[in-house]
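dumping the sequnces here before i forget
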Amino acid sequence: MSVTIKLPTQLRSAAAGQSQLQVDGGDVGTALKSLCQTAPELEGRLFDDGGELRRFVNVFLKGEDIRFLSGLETSVADGDELTILPAVAGGA
Amino acid sequence: MSAEALKCKECAATYPLDAHYVCERCFGPLEVAYTKPELDAAELKRRIQGGPLNLWRYADFLPVERPQSALPAGMTPLVRADRLAERLGLGEVWVKNETTNPTHSFKDRVVSVALRRSVELGFETVACASTGNLANSVAAHAAAAGLPAYVFIPANLEEEKILATGAYGAKVVAVRGNYDDVNRLCMEVSAERPWAFVNVNVRPYYAEGSKTLAFEIAEQLGWELPSRIVAPIASGSLFTKLARGFEEFTDAGLLSGELPVMNGAQAQGCSPVAEAFAENRNFCRPVKPDTIAKSLAIGNPADGPYAADLARRTGGAVDAVTDDEIRAGIRLLAETTGIFTETAGGVTTAVLAKLAARGDIDPSERVVICITGDGLKTIDTVRGTFAVHEIEPTVEAFEAGLETELRAAV
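..and the predicted 3d for all of it:
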């Protein structure tokens, strides 16, 4: 399964300046792991020491927050797009 | 005291004072860090009291080089609400009435600081993701400053808020989705355009504006801390910055005592922070908002974990109320104080009533509730909640109507 992962500006320096990468994976978790194999510097930025996604890292599959799906176990299909964004911004 | 750096709230990494809002190491939110105050409390107090009658009187505690704006905000009334207190069986209640700001909500505070800092950083266009009040405020302040503005809002927003934004000449972008979709879009657009998104890339400065609400409350109470604050929570930014404001004044020697008990208010149809508080979690599980309190409808609140933590460490709580309780809250505030608030203020007043009913508030406490926005912006919520008597223009018709009215009231 080949999926596209879009990186926010804050992470591009850790991925040789690229704004998106193609990776393989059957679910969100394995796609992110293979992203980290391609760009190892991303590992510590995205995941904490226990291997969990950091609490301010948001991942969207085709625009939907993966926490509304099955989290890291959400399956991905060939050609799907994942977007990583920081959880910062807001109203009142 | 002057702004020194941007600092990550999670891992304490520091960054220069430019348009950064997220830590590149751990994705934590960045916040403005200051040097220790160089002036003693008496001198600071003199500078504040000699300052303008708007939020720039607190310039010593704000991250701008030249404190000024074309549309001054702040110094809103702090009103003693004895009739409200009496109705709820409480001792002392004050209402911080933010509806008197230039665009009728507390957002004029954060926008003042964000816009000023954006200009200092060389931005020529401003933008925002908004649930409405921020859109109004950005549009107005940008117009006053002569800057083009783009405001992104959920397409289903109250019409009053859309009209009151377009009136200033801002470009209004209605996004098919909820606020969290708008927010995500703005984050992506902000990476591609050289614009200052007040609550995205210049958010650390923006958020500082909310401290001025706490500064004013303390100054208006005669340089004293209230016992308890009840304030609404959407992203959690206002709620946490209120506490930061009290802490900074205390550290500077302007106040003494403990932080007030902090009570957060959410709508049941969008209560990720109340849920995190109730379940004692250090993260917020995002929700899909479904509430009449659209200005609080943020399902993925950036400062939510910090807000829940603040409520815990001050002995407060985060409570949620239903849409019916919100409508009753709007009514209760209006008929006891003369202040007509939007749904967010209904949420806040309803939570105050809930705390009072639960016996959480001691009669000796001095309670301040923050009424953040104006009822005219969510006028639909009061439609049909009262009767209008239409009569012919004669005294007889009036007297007859009055009689019917009196009979109905008996």
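The first helix of chain B runs from residue 41 to 49.
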